[in-house]
Amino acid sequence: MKIGVLALQGAVREHLRHIELSGHEGIAIKRVEQLEEIDGLILPGGESTTLRRLMNLYGFKEALVNSDLPMFGTCAGLIVLAQDIVGEEGYLKKLDITVERNSFGRQVDSFESELDIKGIAEDIEAVFIRAPHIEKVNSDNVEVLSTVGDKIVAVKEGNYLGVSFHPELTDDYRVTQYFIEHIVAESKKANV
Ligand code: GLN
């Protein structure tokens, strides 16, 4: 399958590598017209205010709000997908959740944790960098896949997957492979 990585800002190369390791074709997406070529899109981590500004500038907000393309958001990408952001207006509003930015506190800016992610694996090494968490799930359609303590860090709703961490920074590509071979594949099947 052909999977795009939104290439305006953030950890693009690492996601392309995980797509290739999963046995699929990765494409860096810089223009809205390229969305036609792909089966699914990854919104990478980075800085979500900058990311949203660039998405506005290049027309991605409008294109993606009106699209059914399966999407996977990591860290800043999760913030971009959320219906609500604490203290800010939600952006693409694809995942019916409320996220809080930078919510693991200053003392623990970055950390690693081994996660049990429902339906994917029980031992995913997850890297959190100034990570958001999912404060609230606002609909029964949202499935909670993983938590760290009492904080939700991975969810799925229909064609959308969102995680607080950076799966692309380790050699373990099972989360990306799950997005492609379950979420993207199933949406493709449903649209034939
Ligand atoms: N703290 C960043 C934000 O709020 C996200 C960090 C990341 O993507 N690693 O946009």
Automatic annotation (TrEMBL):
L-glutamine binds at G46, E47, S48, R101, I129, R130. Pathway: Cofactor biosynthesis; pyridoxal 5'-phosphate biosynthesis. InterPro entries: Class_I_gatase-like, PdxT/SNO, PdxT/SNO_CS. CDD domains: GATase1_PB. The keyword Lyase applies. The active site is at C75 (nucleophile), H166 (charge relay system), E168 (charge relay system). Signal peptide: none annotated. It comes from the Bacteria. Pfam families: SNO. Its EC number is 4.3.3.6, 3.5.1.2. Keywords: Glutamine amidotransferase, Hydrolase, Lyase, Pyridoxal phosphate. Catalyzes the hydrolysis of glutamine to glutamate and ammonia as part of the biosynthesis of pyridoxal 5'-phosphate. The resulting ammonia molecule is channeled to the active site of PdxS. Belongs to the glutaminase PdxT/SNO family. In the presence of PdxS, forms a dodecamer of heterodimers. Only shows activity in the heterodimer. This is Pyridoxal 5'-phosphate synthase subunit PdxT. It comes from Staphylococcus simulans UMC-CNS-990. The lineage of its organism: Bacteria, Bacillati, Bacillota, Bacilli, Bacillales.
